[in-house]
Amino acid sequence: MKQRSYGYIKFAAIAVNAIVMMILALSGGLAYMMADLNISSETAVLILMIPNFVAIPFCFFCGSFCNKFSTRNVALFGTAVFAITGVAPCFLQNVTAILVVRALHGIGYAFCSSCSATLVTEYCPDDADSLMGIKQSVQNVFAIAYGLLGGYLATLNWRYSYLLYLIAVPIFFIMLGLPKRETKAAQTEKVKVHLTGKTWAWCIGMFIFMLSIACFSNHMSEIVVGREISDATGSGAVVSISTAFGVVAGLVFGRVFKALGKFTMPLSLLLVAITQFMIPLTDSYLVIALAGGIQGLAYSTAVPCALMGTAGSCDAESSGTAIGIMVSFMLLGNVCSDYVLAPMSSLLGGGAAGKYYGAAIIGLVCMVYFFVLESIKKPETQAA
Protein backbone atom coordinates (compact mmCIF):
# COMPACT_ATOMS: atom_id res chain seq x y z
CA MET A 1 0.00 0.00 0.00
CA LYS A 2 1.42 3.41 -0.90
CA GLN A 3 2.34 5.84 1.87
CA ARG A 4 -0.56 8.08 2.85
CA SER A 5 -0.15 11.70 3.89
CA TYR A 6 -0.93 12.63 7.47
CA GLY A 7 -3.74 14.85 6.19
CA TYR A 8 -5.39 11.86 4.54
CA ILE A 9 -4.95 9.78 7.68
CA LYS A 10 -6.71 12.44 9.77
CA PHE A 11 -9.49 12.62 7.20
CA ALA A 12 -9.91 8.85 7.10
CA ALA A 13 -9.78 8.55 10.89
CA ILE A 14 -12.83 10.78 11.33
CA ALA A 15 -14.71 9.64 8.18
CA VAL A 16 -16.81 7.05 10.00
CA ASN A 17 -18.44 9.87 11.98
CA ALA A 18 -20.33 10.79 8.82
CA ILE A 19 -22.64 7.78 9.24
CA VAL A 20 -23.17 7.23 12.97
CA MET A 21 -26.15 9.64 13.11
CA MET A 22 -27.93 7.96 10.20
CA ILE A 23 -30.90 6.96 12.40
CA LEU A 24 -32.16 10.55 12.08
CA ALA A 25 -32.90 9.87 8.41
CA LEU A 26 -35.57 7.34 9.39
CA SER A 27 -37.71 9.00 12.05
CA GLY A 28 -39.58 11.20 9.55
CA GLY A 29 -40.87 8.14 7.69
CA LEU A 30 -42.38 6.22 10.63
CA ALA A 31 -45.97 7.24 9.89
CA TYR A 32 -45.64 6.22 6.24
CA MET A 33 -44.09 2.89 7.22
CA MET A 34 -46.91 2.22 9.71
CA ALA A 35 -49.53 2.79 7.01
CA ASP A 36 -47.73 0.76 4.35
CA LEU A 37 -46.92 -2.26 6.54
CA ASN A 38 -50.08 -1.97 8.66
CA ILE A 39 -48.15 -2.03 11.94
CA SER A 40 -48.63 -0.30 15.29
CA SER A 41 -46.65 2.73 16.42
CA GLU A 42 -44.90 0.52 19.01
CA THR A 43 -43.66 -1.83 16.30
CA ALA A 44 -42.52 1.10 14.16
CA VAL A 45 -40.54 2.59 17.07
CA LEU A 46 -39.04 -0.85 17.77
CA ILE A 47 -37.85 -1.05 14.14
CA LEU A 48 -36.27 2.37 14.59
CA MET A 49 -34.66 1.78 17.99
CA ILE A 50 -33.73 -1.93 18.10
CA PRO A 51 -30.19 -1.24 16.81
CA ASN A 52 -29.52 0.84 19.92
CA PHE A 53 -30.50 -2.03 22.23
CA VAL A 54 -28.39 -4.57 20.31
CA ALA A 55 -25.45 -2.16 20.18
CA ILE A 56 -25.03 -1.93 23.97
CA PRO A 57 -23.26 -5.29 24.57
CA PHE A 58 -21.23 -5.03 21.34
CA CYS A 59 -19.98 -1.56 22.33
CA PHE A 60 -18.97 -3.07 25.67
CA PHE A 61 -16.71 -5.67 24.04
CA CYS A 62 -15.62 -3.64 20.99
CA GLY A 63 -12.27 -2.80 22.56
CA SER A 64 -11.41 -6.47 22.95
CA PHE A 65 -12.17 -7.04 19.27
CA CYS A 66 -9.97 -4.06 18.38
CA ASN A 67 -7.08 -5.50 20.40
CA LYS A 68 -7.39 -8.81 18.60
CA PHE A 69 -8.17 -7.72 15.03
CA SER A 70 -7.07 -4.02 15.03
CA THR A 71 -9.31 -0.97 15.25
CA ARG A 72 -9.04 -0.42 11.49
CA ASN A 73 -10.35 -3.90 10.68
CA VAL A 74 -13.15 -3.75 13.23
CA ALA A 75 -14.23 -0.34 11.89
CA LEU A 76 -14.18 -1.68 8.31
CA PHE A 77 -16.22 -4.73 9.31
CA GLY A 78 -18.67 -2.53 11.20
CA THR A 79 -19.06 -0.17 8.26
CA ALA A 80 -19.73 -3.08 5.88
CA VAL A 81 -22.40 -4.51 8.20
CA PHE A 82 -23.79 -1.00 8.70
CA ALA A 83 -24.19 -0.49 4.94
CA ILE A 84 -25.64 -3.90 4.07
CA THR A 85 -28.13 -4.11 6.94
CA GLY A 86 -28.92 -0.41 6.63
CA VAL A 87 -30.08 -0.62 3.02
CA ALA A 88 -31.79 -4.04 3.36
CA PRO A 89 -35.19 -2.80 4.70
CA CYS A 90 -35.66 -0.92 1.43
CA PHE A 91 -36.17 -4.28 -0.28
CA LEU A 92 -37.93 -6.30 2.45
CA GLN A 93 -41.68 -6.76 2.78
CA ASN A 94 -41.86 -8.90 5.92
CA VAL A 95 -41.89 -7.05 9.25
CA THR A 96 -40.04 -9.86 11.03
CA ALA A 97 -37.29 -9.80 8.41
CA ILE A 98 -36.97 -6.03 8.80
CA LEU A 99 -36.66 -6.41 12.58
CA VAL A 100 -33.96 -9.06 12.15
CA VAL A 101 -31.80 -6.96 9.82
CA ARG A 102 -32.31 -3.90 12.01
CA ALA A 103 -31.10 -5.94 14.99
CA LEU A 104 -28.04 -7.02 12.98
CA HIS A 105 -27.59 -3.37 12.07
CA GLY A 106 -26.97 -2.72 15.76
CA ILE A 107 -23.72 -4.70 15.50
CA GLY A 108 -22.45 -2.46 12.71
CA TYR A 109 -23.60 0.65 14.57
CA ALA A 110 -21.81 -0.49 17.75
CA PHE A 111 -18.49 -1.00 16.00
CA CYS A 112 -18.74 2.24 14.00
CA SER A 113 -19.67 4.41 16.99
CA SER A 114 -17.08 2.85 19.31
CA CYS A 115 -14.24 2.97 16.76
CA SER A 116 -15.05 6.57 15.76
CA ALA A 117 -13.05 7.87 18.72
CA THR A 118 -10.46 5.08 18.96
CA LEU A 119 -9.32 5.66 15.37
CA VAL A 120 -8.51 9.26 16.29
CA THR A 121 -6.55 8.37 19.43
CA GLU A 122 -4.62 5.61 17.64
CA TYR A 123 -3.74 7.34 14.37
CA CYS A 124 -3.60 11.00 15.44
CA PRO A 125 -2.72 11.14 19.16
CA ASP A 126 -0.97 14.51 18.89
CA ASP A 127 -4.06 16.16 17.40
CA ALA A 128 -6.65 14.27 19.44
CA ASP A 129 -8.01 17.31 21.28
CA SER A 130 -8.89 19.24 18.11
CA LEU A 131 -9.94 16.17 16.12
CA MET A 132 -12.35 15.04 18.84
CA GLY A 133 -14.16 18.34 18.41
CA ILE A 134 -14.11 18.07 14.61
CA LYS A 135 -15.43 14.51 14.93
CA GLN A 136 -18.42 15.85 16.87
CA SER A 137 -19.00 18.59 14.29
CA VAL A 138 -18.96 16.03 11.47
CA GLN A 139 -21.62 14.02 13.29
CA ASN A 140 -23.77 17.13 13.79
CA VAL A 141 -23.47 18.36 10.19
CA PHE A 142 -24.51 14.99 8.82
CA ALA A 143 -27.26 14.69 11.45
CA ILE A 144 -28.87 17.84 10.05
CA ALA A 145 -28.45 16.61 6.48
CA TYR A 146 -29.91 13.18 7.25
CA GLY A 147 -32.91 14.68 9.01
CA LEU A 148 -33.71 16.86 6.01
CA LEU A 149 -32.95 14.30 3.29
CA GLY A 150 -34.62 11.45 5.12
CA GLY A 151 -37.79 13.45 5.65
CA TYR A 152 -37.94 14.45 1.98
CA LEU A 153 -37.30 10.90 0.72
CA ALA A 154 -39.96 9.54 3.07
CA THR A 155 -42.59 11.74 1.41
CA LEU A 156 -41.80 9.94 -1.85
CA ASN A 157 -41.59 6.48 -0.27
CA TRP A 158 -40.53 5.57 3.27
CA ARG A 159 -38.21 2.89 1.86
CA TYR A 160 -36.15 5.49 0.01
CA SER A 161 -34.87 6.85 3.34
CA TYR A 162 -32.95 3.61 3.84
CA LEU A 163 -31.04 4.22 0.59
CA LEU A 164 -29.09 6.90 2.44
CA TYR A 165 -27.18 4.07 4.11
CA LEU A 166 -25.33 3.66 0.80
CA ILE A 167 -23.23 6.62 1.96
CA ALA A 168 -21.40 4.06 4.12
CA VAL A 169 -19.93 2.49 0.95
CA PRO A 170 -17.54 5.37 0.08
CA ILE A 171 -16.77 5.75 3.79
CA PHE A 172 -15.63 2.10 3.78
CA PHE A 173 -13.21 2.73 0.93
CA ILE A 174 -11.89 5.92 2.53
CA MET A 175 -11.06 4.03 5.73
CA LEU A 176 -9.55 1.22 3.67
CA GLY A 177 -6.74 3.67 2.94
CA LEU A 178 -5.72 3.84 6.61
CA PRO A 179 -2.30 2.22 7.14
CA LYS A 180 -2.43 -1.28 8.58
CA ARG A 181 -1.18 -1.48 12.14
CA GLU A 182 0.11 -4.45 14.06
CA THR A 183 -2.62 -5.71 16.36
CA LYS A 184 -2.01 -5.38 20.06
CA ALA A 185 -2.57 -9.10 20.40
CA ALA A 186 0.36 -9.68 18.03
CA GLN A 187 2.67 -7.38 19.96
CA THR A 188 2.51 -9.45 23.13
CA GLU A 189 1.60 -13.00 23.96
CA LYS A 190 -1.52 -11.92 25.76
CA VAL A 191 -3.02 -8.46 25.93
CA LYS A 192 -4.24 -7.57 29.39
CA VAL A 193 -6.84 -4.84 29.58
CA HIS A 194 -6.44 -2.65 32.66
CA LEU A 195 -9.44 -0.44 33.38
CA THR A 196 -8.85 1.88 36.30
CA GLY A 197 -11.34 3.11 38.84
CA LYS A 198 -11.34 6.44 37.02
CA THR A 199 -12.26 4.69 33.76
CA TRP A 200 -15.38 3.25 35.36
CA ALA A 201 -16.09 6.61 36.98
CA TRP A 202 -16.12 8.26 33.53
CA CYS A 203 -18.49 5.57 32.24
CA ILE A 204 -20.88 5.99 35.16
CA GLY A 205 -20.72 9.77 34.79
CA MET A 206 -21.70 9.59 31.12
CA PHE A 207 -24.57 7.27 32.00
CA ILE A 208 -25.84 9.94 34.41
CA PHE A 209 -25.19 12.63 31.79
CA MET A 210 -27.38 10.85 29.25
CA LEU A 211 -30.20 10.48 31.80
CA SER A 212 -30.37 14.27 31.78
CA ILE A 213 -29.54 15.27 28.20
CA ALA A 214 -31.89 12.74 26.56
CA CYS A 215 -34.89 14.59 28.00
CA PHE A 216 -34.26 17.51 25.65
CA SER A 217 -35.06 15.75 22.37
CA ASN A 218 -37.42 13.14 23.85
CA HIS A 219 -39.93 15.65 25.21
CA MET A 220 -39.42 18.83 23.20
CA SER A 221 -42.62 18.30 21.18
CA GLU A 222 -44.66 17.94 24.39
CA ILE A 223 -43.53 21.41 25.42
CA VAL A 224 -43.66 23.19 22.08
CA VAL A 225 -46.71 21.48 20.54
CA GLY A 226 -48.52 20.62 23.77
CA ARG A 227 -48.52 24.24 24.92
CA GLU A 228 -49.33 25.44 21.39
CA ILE A 229 -46.12 27.49 21.29
CA SER A 230 -45.53 26.19 17.77
CA ASP A 231 -46.26 23.15 15.61
CA ALA A 232 -44.32 19.95 14.96
CA THR A 233 -42.11 21.75 12.45
CA GLY A 234 -41.19 24.30 15.10
CA SER A 235 -40.41 21.54 17.57
CA GLY A 236 -38.14 19.84 15.06
CA ALA A 237 -36.47 23.16 14.31
CA VAL A 238 -35.41 23.53 17.96
CA VAL A 239 -33.63 20.17 17.78
CA SER A 240 -32.02 21.24 14.48
CA ILE A 241 -30.85 24.50 16.08
CA SER A 242 -29.31 22.47 18.89
CA THR A 243 -27.46 20.33 16.35
CA ALA A 244 -26.28 23.41 14.41
CA PHE A 245 -24.84 24.97 17.58
CA GLY A 246 -23.18 21.63 18.22
CA VAL A 247 -21.30 21.98 14.94
CA VAL A 248 -19.81 25.26 16.17
CA ALA A 249 -18.91 23.75 19.55
CA GLY A 250 -17.11 20.87 17.88
CA LEU A 251 -15.05 23.16 15.67
CA VAL A 252 -13.80 25.25 18.59
CA PHE A 253 -13.53 22.40 21.11
CA GLY A 254 -9.73 22.23 21.00
CA ARG A 255 -9.40 25.90 21.96
CA VAL A 256 -12.13 25.68 24.61
CA PHE A 257 -10.56 22.62 26.19
CA LYS A 258 -7.13 24.24 26.32
CA ALA A 259 -8.63 27.37 27.90
CA LEU A 260 -10.90 25.71 30.48
CA GLY A 261 -9.02 22.49 31.19
CA LYS A 262 -10.58 20.44 33.97
CA PHE A 263 -13.50 22.89 34.21
CA THR A 264 -14.71 22.10 30.66
CA MET A 265 -16.92 19.16 31.67
CA PRO A 266 -18.48 20.69 34.82
CA LEU A 267 -19.29 23.94 33.00
CA SER A 268 -20.93 21.99 30.16
CA LEU A 269 -23.11 20.21 32.73
CA LEU A 270 -24.01 23.53 34.35
CA LEU A 271 -25.27 24.79 30.98
CA VAL A 272 -27.28 21.58 30.54
CA ALA A 273 -28.91 22.01 33.95
CA ILE A 274 -29.74 25.69 33.42
CA THR A 275 -31.33 25.13 30.01
CA GLN A 276 -33.29 22.06 31.17
CA PHE A 277 -34.72 24.28 33.91
CA MET A 278 -35.45 27.18 31.52
CA ILE A 279 -37.42 25.26 28.90
CA PRO A 280 -40.57 24.40 30.93
CA LEU A 281 -40.64 27.87 32.56
CA THR A 282 -41.23 29.83 29.37
CA ASP A 283 -43.82 30.04 26.60
CA SER A 284 -41.47 31.99 24.35
CA TYR A 285 -40.36 30.07 21.29
CA LEU A 286 -37.24 32.25 20.97
CA VAL A 287 -36.15 31.43 24.53
CA ILE A 288 -36.74 27.71 23.94
CA ALA A 289 -34.78 27.89 20.67
CA LEU A 290 -31.93 29.68 22.49
CA ALA A 291 -31.98 27.03 25.22
CA GLY A 292 -31.82 24.38 22.51
CA GLY A 293 -28.77 26.05 21.00
CA ILE A 294 -27.03 26.15 24.38
CA GLN A 295 -27.87 22.47 24.89
CA GLY A 296 -26.15 21.72 21.58
CA LEU A 297 -23.07 23.67 22.62
CA ALA A 298 -22.92 21.84 25.95
CA TYR A 299 -23.47 18.36 24.51
CA SER A 300 -20.91 18.75 21.74
CA THR A 301 -18.36 20.01 24.25
CA ALA A 302 -19.04 17.36 26.88
CA VAL A 303 -18.87 14.30 24.62
CA PRO A 304 -15.38 14.85 23.13
CA CYS A 305 -14.19 15.87 26.60
CA ALA A 306 -15.50 12.57 27.98
CA LEU A 307 -13.92 10.58 25.16
CA MET A 308 -10.53 12.11 25.90
CA GLY A 309 -10.96 11.67 29.64
CA THR A 310 -11.96 8.04 29.28
CA ALA A 311 -9.11 7.24 26.88
CA GLY A 312 -6.63 9.00 29.14
CA SER A 313 -7.80 7.23 32.30
CA CYS A 314 -6.03 3.99 31.34
CA ASP A 315 -3.07 2.74 29.30
CA ALA A 316 -3.04 2.95 25.51
CA GLU A 317 -3.69 -0.78 25.09
CA SER A 318 -6.92 -0.46 27.10
CA SER A 319 -8.22 2.81 25.66
CA GLY A 320 -10.28 1.16 22.90
CA THR A 321 -12.02 -1.08 25.41
CA ALA A 322 -12.60 1.90 27.74
CA ILE A 323 -14.20 4.01 24.99
CA GLY A 324 -16.40 1.12 23.85
CA ILE A 325 -17.66 0.60 27.39
CA MET A 326 -18.29 4.33 27.81
CA VAL A 327 -20.37 4.39 24.60
CA SER A 328 -22.41 1.44 25.86
CA PHE A 329 -23.04 3.30 29.14
CA MET A 330 -24.20 6.33 27.14
CA LEU A 331 -26.60 4.21 25.08
CA LEU A 332 -27.90 2.60 28.27
CA GLY A 333 -28.43 6.03 29.84
CA ASN A 334 -30.40 7.14 26.80
CA VAL A 335 -32.62 4.05 27.06
CA CYS A 336 -33.13 4.45 30.82
CA SER A 337 -33.75 8.21 30.82
CA ASP A 338 -37.55 8.15 30.76
CA TYR A 339 -37.73 5.38 33.36
CA VAL A 340 -35.71 7.52 35.78
CA LEU A 341 -37.39 10.83 34.95
CA ALA A 342 -40.99 9.54 35.15
CA PRO A 343 -41.04 9.04 38.96
CA MET A 344 -39.11 12.30 39.44
CA SER A 345 -41.70 14.09 37.31
CA SER A 346 -44.54 12.95 39.58
CA LEU A 347 -42.78 14.71 42.47
CA LEU A 348 -42.03 17.86 40.46
CA GLY A 349 -45.42 18.76 39.01
CA GLY A 350 -45.92 15.98 36.49
CA GLY A 351 -45.88 15.90 32.71
CA ALA A 352 -43.04 16.95 30.44
CA ALA A 353 -42.26 19.97 32.64
CA GLY A 354 -41.62 17.72 35.62
CA LYS A 355 -39.27 15.59 33.53
CA TYR A 356 -37.29 18.68 32.50
CA TYR A 357 -37.01 19.75 36.14
CA GLY A 358 -35.84 16.24 37.00
CA ALA A 359 -33.31 16.39 34.17
CA ALA A 360 -32.05 19.73 35.51
CA ILE A 361 -31.52 18.23 38.97
CA ILE A 362 -29.65 15.26 37.47
CA GLY A 363 -27.56 17.71 35.45
CA LEU A 364 -26.53 19.58 38.62
CA VAL A 365 -25.65 16.32 40.36
CA CYS A 366 -23.61 15.32 37.31
CA MET A 367 -21.83 18.69 37.33
CA VAL A 368 -20.64 18.13 40.91
CA TYR A 369 -19.72 14.53 40.04
CA PHE A 370 -17.47 15.57 37.16
CA PHE A 371 -15.94 18.44 39.12
CA VAL A 372 -14.79 15.93 41.72
CA LEU A 373 -13.72 13.44 39.03
CA GLU A 374 -11.70 16.02 37.10
CA SER A 375 -9.96 17.01 40.34
CA ILE A 376 -8.45 13.52 40.54
CA LYS A 377 -5.20 14.05 38.68
CA LYS A 378 -3.91 10.51 38.27
CA PRO A 379 -5.84 7.32 37.46
CA GLU A 380 -5.46 4.34 39.74
CA THR A 381 -2.86 1.86 38.61
CA GLN A 382 -4.71 -1.13 39.96
CA ALA A 383 -6.80 -2.94 37.34
CA ALA A 384 -10.49 -2.82 37.94
Walkthrough of the structure:
The chain is an all-alpha fold and 384 residues long. 76% of the residues lie in helices and 0% in strands. The chain has helices at residues 6-15, 30-37, 41-69, 71-87, 95-123, 128-156, 168-176, 184-187, 197-218, 220-224, 232-251, 253-260, 264-278, 285-312, 316-347, 351-375. α1 runs antiparallel to α5 (95-123). The longest helix has 32 residues, at 316-347.
Describe the structure concisely.
This protein is mostly helical and 384 residues long. The chain is built from 16 helices and no strands.
Task: Profile the largest sheet.
Answer: none
Please count the helical segments: 16
Rg, Cα atoms, Å: 20 Å
From the N-terminal CA to the C-terminal CA, the straight-line distance is 39 Å
Structural class by SSE content? mainly alpha
| String of helices and strands | HHHHHHHHHHHHHHHH
The percent range for strand residues is: under 5%
In the predicted model, the low-confidence regions spanning at least 5 consecutive residues are 379-384
The geometry reads as: globular
Mean pLDDT: 85
Number of strands: 0
- The percent of residues in helical segments reads over 70%
Mind sketching the topology for me?
Blueprint: H1 6-15, H2 30-37, H3 41-69, H4 71-87, H5 95-123, H6 128-156, H7 168-176, H8 184-187, H9 197-218, H10 220-224, H11 232-251, H12 253-260, H13 264-278, H14 285-312, H15 316-347, H16 351-375
Helix pairs in contact: 1-5, 2-3, 3-4, 3-5, 3-15, 4-5, 4-7, 5-6, 5-15, 6-11, 6-12, 6-14, 9-13, 9-14, 9-15, 9-16, 11-14, 13-14, 13-16, 14-15, 15-16
